[in-house]
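Reviewers of the previous submission asked for a worked example of the structure-prediction workflow described in the proposal, so we include one complete record here. The input consisted solely of the amino acid sequence. No template or homolog information was supplied to the procedure at any stage.
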Amino acid sequence: MKYLKVLYVQVIIGIIAGVIVGWLFPSFSPVAKMISDMFINMIRMVIAPVIFFTIVLGIAGAGDMKKVGRVGGKGLLYFEIVTTIAIIIGLVVANIIKPGAGVDHNTVAGANPTAIPGDGKGLDWHEFVLHIVPTNIVDAFAKGDIIQILFFGILFSVGLKQLGSYGETVTATFQKLNKVLFNVLKIVMKVSPLGAFGGMAYTIGKFGFTSLALLGKLMLTFYITSLLFIFVILNLIAWYYGFSLWKLLGYVKAELLIVLGSSSSESVLPNIMAKLEKAGCEKSVVGLIIPAGYSFNLDGTSIYLSLAVIFLAQVYNVPLSLAQQLSIIGILLITSKGAAGITGSGFLVLASTLTALKVVPVEGLALLIGVDRFMSEARALTNMIGNTVATVVIAKSENAVDMLQYKAVVENRARILDEV
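From that input alone, the workflow returned the following structure tokens.
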């Protein structure tokens, strides 16, 4: 019975119960969605201040501002390389498995062009760049806009550090506030099994299994591609930098299950930051890489976007030349970055990509609505794992991780079964 007190066991029970309830009682889905949304909202209410305080405390406490700049530059370079690999893998697997071959777009349930979110014009990348700088920081905090909070946090940190000893009282106050926030987070995480239950019950109850009949091959292809990316590409990266991906995943297993249940990688963002700091990664690295990664290192989303474009081309029998597929890579390298912090961004970015490509009908997006929710779990999991690995990689490259502490905490997991 002692295992029932362990968080990840409770989350597993919540997920299983959610699947059963959603299957047997589909009318429960509105209530289930309310439960799931309430849990995610409880997490979101602390995300903005946690990110801000972590950035400020990490940068202001760093001894060398050049190191902070170097960490940011390394992070962005790493993000671009790895997301490019993710896009290419999505294209290659889609061309090999051909999930869209034989699918008649006229027979797929729910394939209604009017159901496409947004206006179909896609994202304005210039607007996204302008969006990085907040016009009102209070509004950025109110909306939980990660990238704007990151931008303001960096500027605030530099300004605070330039005060020297005069800024120490502010730093001390922020440290106390941050501890309070993480205590609040510990309280919130106690109800995460309910959040996972609600998320799964809603997904199964609302969408059922019928939409998987014709598009199941697409979903299966996406899951295979995501697993290939995690256990080949990310595993090789982890091996090269001298740490075990498996042990790192074991360390964050509770968070993985919460993401699976809630379909949101954002639901564990503060937890991942806290756990990586406990594992010995410097606060300045965690404070920069994790928030930036949630905006620029969306590996799962990159795979989904490239796979979806090829899938739609196959459904509409549109042959794509090598040059056109290389164009897809180039377009997605830009448009995928516009997905940061925008609800329903997957469809908007796809619309932007298809509009720029001008060979695949934008109306085809309606085909994906029925199974999109079933693929969102894999997207969220891959995004979360990718950012966790990225943080450890950058920390190791900067000698900004205490490896003795890392090995004690991550590899000796028996001592931390149910922490933050």
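Residues 65-97 form the longest helix (33 residues). We consider this example representative of the routine output the project will generate in years two and three.
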